[in-house]
Write a structure and sequence with these properties.
The protein is of the alpha/beta class. 40% of the residues lie in helices and 12% in strands. β1 and β2 form a beta hairpin.
């Protein structure tokens, strides 16, 4: 009888031990270690790209060949073309080919849109009097000529050239080449010497 009791006690003890081991294993599995790893995992940590504020603004100054030059705010990552668009687009005469529209904008950036160069021949024609023919290119303008230019005329020396400039400064530009005779020292005979060599 005592042997049977001892066996029963051993069996009960083994059963309790197995039950305690199973319970311990269950507790260990319940505290999920992967959850901690997941939280501390670099993959789930806020990355630089995720923390970058996509609404960060840059301030640029747009000048030159645009319709509305000024200072503008753009979202970081915007291109020069976006800044030009904000500034009203290209103005007439702007040379868009001389600016890199794909360039990324930066804070405090100055975007200067250049104008197309005006040919020298066009500039010369725009200042000429349309009532005269192109032959006046060989003539000296009494309204635009310098002292050295006027000195080249027959019978006009440095002193008379200076008087001509003084006269047009005080009285305004000549409206007719014959008005040169109003300049002291230029009479009819002297005027006839160079009247075919001058223009307004």
């Amino acid at each position: 009888m005592e042997i049977l009791q001892k066996k029963l006690i051993i069996i009960i003890g083994l059963a309790c031990g197995m039950l305690a081991y199973s319970f311990y294993s269950f507790i260990q599995k319940g505290s999920d270690p992967q959850e901690l790893n997941t939280i501390n995992s670099p993959a789930d940590a806020p990355s630089a790209s995720n923390t970058t504020n996509t609404d960060v603004e840059v301030v640029v100054y747009v000048s030159g060949g645009v319709n509305k030059p000024g200072v503008y705010k753009l979202i970081q990552g915007s291109r020069v073309v976006d800044a030009v668009t904000l500034a009203g687009g290209f103005a007439p005469g702007a040379d868009a080919a001389k600016i890199n529209l794909a360039l990324l904008t930066k804070d405090e950036m100055h975007i200067n849109v250049p104008y197309a160069a005006v040919p020298a021949a066009t500039t010369a024609n725009s200042t000429s009097n349309p009532s005269h023919s192109g032959s006046q290119d060989d003539k000296i303008s009494i309204n635009m000529g310098s002292k050295a230019d006027l000195d080249k005329l027959p019978g006009i020396g440095p002193s008379l050239a200076e008087r001509i400039i003084e006269y047009r400064t005080n009285n305004g530009q000549f409206k007719d080449i014959s008005e040169l005779k109003k300049v002291p020292g230029i009479g009819e005979s002297k005027y006839n010497q160079f009247k075919d060599k001058i223009s307004l």
